[in-house]
Design brief:
This protein is of the alpha/beta class and 469 residues long. 55% of the residues lie in helices and 11% in strands.
């Protein structure tokens, strides 16, 4: 059997599986084995383990098989069965299925007044994927902050038909590489499976398209189009928070794609639990696959990203300059690329080498050096020093009053002074869940309002943050 024939058979089984129950597929169709396919005579020969299965399939699923093989092997095929008649002696009989013409006539009679199924629909045409071909896995530099989502994303691109990690929900702060990664997944999938309908769309564009469809009274066409996609990639879905009608429409698209085993890739600047104003039924679906965080790159990854860009652009930048940029670019890939582009421009315009002096001059204009965000670790350390407790105690399960107060204040200030979601703060402060962080913040806010001395203490801690910047 050729590889092409095996691919056609695998596609036929996939279509059958989508249109019958799991039990029906396992008992009736999974035992089917393709013995041969003659491309000249267009005869499909299928092995069946018993006469019972043959009779049952012919009686109840002849129409389904006709539509599936018509879709995969093309029109004008003939289907024959090789059936095991005598198991003890291994004797088989070959039986010809009902002629295609008769099946077609019967199908027209029995389905004339029924709604068309997925297999009756016309094959959708190829579309512009809207992917950026320059954003690939080849130039997505791997590091500890992105290893998990990158590895899983590559696996999905190589094996999109598997049910694992669907949907894939990627979240992280601006500039950490989310858009690059989700584009890379789409680009790689399209490279391996060019026949698949893959679409990248921003949440904002989806919302604009939805509004336009409502105005033109073509909402059903809009939904049907999105339901034909094999891999739907949506960026910045936090844009939908509070947009009830857009969420309702996407809910129907999501359900259809998910039920039919299509791939859904979502990106956001925060995890599902922090998408306030998003419908609960959507949040539960977002969280049912894989939720993967993309953290800002650490210094070493920043250096690796810079070195790769420098090599790609054919620049000559000293190691000390590379390290300086990595330490001052706020852990943002966009900032890193912006600084390198600016250095290149300054070097050409002013005809001078790129050195530390030029780098400092450029970074002052490109990056807010004096506005580095505080880390949770820095906040915890400052709070612990103020209350004279150890960071180990704050991160422990201790219920001592001084430990609880320090822990709650640390969570409150972390939420106030960082852009991290409550779930991430809780993980960094003693592996608590997001509800504990929310409760702690509420307790601190309540006490600040009622206790002037406590309010002054919190203000004193915040002064220490300013001194550190």
């Amino acid at each position: 059997m050729t590889k092409k024939t095996q691919t056609l058979w695998d596609e036929a089984l996939r279509l059958i599986k989508e249109n019958v129950s799991e039990q029906q597929f396992s008992s009736l169709f999974k035992p089917m084995k393709l013995e041969s396919y003659d491309e000249n005579s267009k005869v499909i020969l299928v092995n069946l383990p018993s006469m019972f299965i043959y009779e049952y399939v012919e009686e109840h699923y002849a129409d389904l098989l006709y539509k599936v093989f018509n879709r995969t092997f093309g029109t004008g095929f003939r289907l024959n069965y090789r059936i095991l008649a005598d198991k003890e002696h291994g004797k088989t009989n070959v039986i010809e299925s009902e002629p295609v013409a008769n099946i077609e006539k019967q199908r027209q009679r029995t389905t004339a007044n029924q709604s068309p199924t997925l297999l009756d629909a016309v094959q959708p045409q190829q579309i512009d994927s809207q992917l950026n071909p320059r954003l690939t896995f080849a130039n997505f530099v791997e590091g500890t902050s992105n290893k998990l989502p990158r590895t899983v994303g590559l696996s999905i691109a190589e094996h999109p038909a598997t049910a694992s990690f669907n949907p894939m929900f990627i979240f992280g702060p601006s500039g950490c590489g989310k858009t690059h990664l989700i584009n890379a997944i789409g680009v790689k999938t399209k490279e391996i499976y060019p026949q698949k309908r893959i679409l990248y769309v921003s949440a904002r564009l989806f919302q604009v398209q939805y509004t336009s469809a409502v105005i033109r009274n073509s909402l059903n066409d809009f939904i049907r189009f999105y339901q034909t996609i094999d891999m739907l990639i949506v960026d910045d879905i936090q844009e939908w928070m509070g947009s009830d009608k857009t969420q309702d429409t996407f809910f129907h698209v999501f359900n259809h794609l998910f039920r039919n085993g299509k791939r859904i890739i979502l990106a956001s600047d925060r995890p599902p639990v922090d998408l306030k104003g998003m419908h609960e039924r959507l949040l539960t679906r977002f969280a049912c696959g894989l939720t993967a965080e993309l953290e800002k790159p650490n210094e070493q990854l920043c250096i690796d990203i810079l070195n790769r860009k420098i090599k790609h652009d054919g620049l000559n930048i000293p190691g000390e300059v590379v390290q300086f940029i990595a330490q001052t670019a706020n852990g943002s890939v966009r900032d890193l690329e912006g600084v390198v582009n600016s250095l290149m421009a300054y070097s050409i315009v002013y005809n001078r080498d790129i050195d530390l002096t030029l780098a400092e001059r450029v970074i002052k204009r490109a990056v807010k050096i004096n506005d580095h965000p505080l880390t949770v670790d820095e906040i915890v350390e400052t709070v612990c020093n103020h209350f004279n407790v150890s960071t180990t105690a704050v991160g422990s399960r201790s219920r001592k009053r001084e430990h609880v107060i320090a822990r709650q204040v640390a969570m409150y200030l972390a939420q106030k002074h960082t852009k991290m979601p409550a779930s991430r703060i809780g993980l960094l402060v003693g592996s608590r869940d997001h509800s504990t962080v929310i409760h702690s913040c509420a307790q601190v806010e309540k006490r600040i309002t009622a206790d002037a001395a406590f309010n002054n203490e919190v203000a004193e801690i915040e002064k220490q943050f300013k001194l550190k910047k």
